[in-house]
Amino acid sequence: MPQETGASCDAILKTQVAIVGAGPAGLLLGHLLRAEGIDCVVIERQTPQHVQSRIRAGVLERITVSLMERLGLDARLKAEGLIEEGFNFGDGERTIRIDVAGLTGKTVVVYGQTEITRDLMDAAPARGLQVIYGVENVALHDIAGDAPSVAFDKDGAAHRIEARFVVGCDGFHGPCRKAIPASAVREYERVYPFGWLGILADVPPCNHELVYANAPQGFALASMRSRTRSRYYIDVPLTEQLEDWPDDRLWDELALRLGPQLAQTMVRGPALEKSIAPLRSYVFEPMRYGSLLLCGDAAHIVPPTGAKGLNLAASDVHYAATALTGFFKHNDADAVGSYSAKALARVWKCERFSWSLTKLLHRFPEDGPFERAMQVAELDYIAGSTAAQTSIAENFVGLPV
Ligand code: APR
Ligand code: PHB
């Protein structure tokens, strides 16, 4: 366990790995390190209640499931997760099924990412994973060398963690990425001209598998959390306000975009949650600088088309945990040295898939008849080609780690 020592005004915590951010990436990494007997401390800006209240996507790839299995934290996931063998594209009229299980021999699991976070949070005390919530003014120091530290305030007192490594799992808006000198980095970004308006409701899903639709009125996604809880999305211009979308208007729009067949099976109900999230593709290189490693949304963002966000965070965490285990347990300094290149190779492939699905399924304001014809041709090609379907299926189910 980390050791706390008193020092004039500061409380200094010494540990091997300081993790900033207790979202799914930070918690998963913390558990994996503790399972290897590596000391770590996680610090989080928000309260546990706030972290648990964030509604996120709900499709888990093999890598995410297998990390939960390896930790022995998969009991609820196994009991409540829905195994999905395929998913569908629609255009308001026809449906193209991608037989993920038949084409790849693998499946995904529908289980809310919020539930993964809850499982990881609940297990932390028993596994000796220290998570300090409600920290403020987090600042990284000396990350270029081999004795970095993380300063923060909590309840009005100043604290410092001295570690061998710091891992930034602090999401897109956190301070870790910004601590790397601009001269050492490169950023790639695509901001999309629309957001996803999502609704969560306690109604049975309209279909037992996900349906992504590119209809004349725009994009729609029919997803679920369980056999009794549905999650739907449509795309809206970024200028749109939540107040403009009372539940009835949103259900009407979903019925139009999903098409007459799904509209018949779609059950309407009051929104448990409704929000608009902008879409962005973003990659930050490198994912390591000196003693600082970045994992998850701290280093990259994908648009939600394809549900790669958490799964990509999980593969980063897998590479980071392997590298840090190599360093601390097998004296292998090169393991950390190759972290960024290994993680980025997979990140870019997932960025490509999320971007290409986004392009295929949304009507962009700048698109003319040619771009629309390209979408129709691509959907036709996918409908008639096992090779195209296999490519989509292997990306959807998760590329090898
Ligand atoms: N100090 C401490 N913690 C911070 C700070 C800070 N200054 N800034 C942000 N954080 C915390 C956030 O409060 C949040 O709990 O870092 C955490 C980051 O978590 P996520 O944003 O969920 O990012 P990540 O863990 O990388 O999740 C990856 O999983 O659920 C999905 O949509 C999510 O795509 C994302 C993916
Ligand atoms: C979800 O269920 O919230 C979900 C599913 C698939 C996506 C995005 C979100 O691509």
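^ adenosine-5-diphosphoribose complex. The longest strand covers residues 186-201. The chain has 13 helices and 22 strands.
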